[in-house]
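Q: Predict the bound structure with zinc ion.
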Amino acid sequence: MVVEKNSASWQTAVSNISRWLHDQFLENVPLEDRIGRFLASFTQNLDQFIAQYPEKTDLTRPELALLMAVVFLYPAEETADWQQLVKQLLAHAANGKAPSNEALLDLAIAYGCGWQRALAMRDHETEERWHRAILALRIMVEGSLHQTFKLIIPLLPYQISLFSGSIKEWGRFYSNVITLELLNNRCRCGKHKQDCKKKGDSYVCGRACCRDEHQLAAWEPKVCSLQAFVAHSIRGNASSQLKTGALATSMLYPLLNEDSGITVDSVEFKVCGRCSDTAVLQSIAQHQEPKSQGSVMYEGNSCPECDAPANRQTTYHKARKNWILIPYELGGAYEMLDRWRCPRCRNLFPITWTACPICASSTPQRKTNIWVYSPWLQYSDEEEDSR
Ligand SMILES: [Zn+2]
Ligand SMILES: [Zn+2]
Ligand SMILES: [Zn+2]
Ligand SMILES: [Zn+2]
Ligand SMILES: [Zn+2]
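A: Predicted complex:
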């Protein structure tokens, strides 16, 4: 039989926690710094608190953890039905196994930002979002943005910097925009779920974006941590490797694209006819598109491995999807060019040609355009293409 813990033990725990937090997180420190430190050392905080208040409490450790999180994040000077709030949040924790401290903190932050409020107590106080929880989410978003910048920078050409000005400033600016859109479930990135169909100028959903991972309301604590969810929102996946195709569907991408020109799109590559795998060379000989796997692909004028020069007559030109690039106009080395895509072998070639140089099939009905690496755009790419 479950014995209802009496409200006196909750009251005691609340006042002990409040007092302890007050001593640990001095008010002369800026609020954001206090919140940052609270998030970064949540488990230590909890351990220290328990060590400092060893009096017997019949609250469980998860109850204490959640209580500490909500007392810290709740609007100062206001009070809530803590016991009910903690119970309600605990019900969302992973089923079965004991939830981690971080998982409990996630619940408090998300709830404070408005997540699951429709199911909340009808209490008017709880309907408002908690300022501190919003700051906590912003800190998470900012951290994830900087991780993402670190993943993108190595993919950029040598002299290109991600932003003009301070990367810290941009991180702060983007974290404000993304946090607000995320917690209001109102992303405007223009990306939609795969099954959301286009209807005239808009989409069936009637919204600017309907992707689940761009809305805090869609976070499922049983599926992933809030941190992983945020990473998903920001760069399209939560792993420590950047997936450029996923990045293109992220909340960060439209911002980056507009401010620094970073573009994820298809790029024309040359397939070396000498050092690619036999299977690749066979495909080309049989007038089929070669697979990327086994292809030695390059963008310059000659193969970096064997030095064989690229030649329109003999070198297969292949589209490579989800390539990260910066257009020429924005300081990069890529230019969008018109191409024919051979209806037979899928080779890409300039529209001045009347037949595919590789397989001699005549040109298709429709032009394609694709990004082409043109580092010496001044001299144009005529050298290779006008032969
Ligand atoms: Zn979106
Ligand atoms: Zn949609
Ligand atoms: Zn996820
Ligand atoms: Zn080669
Ligand atoms: Zn062809």
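A: The CA atoms of residues 127 and 142 lie 26 Å apart.
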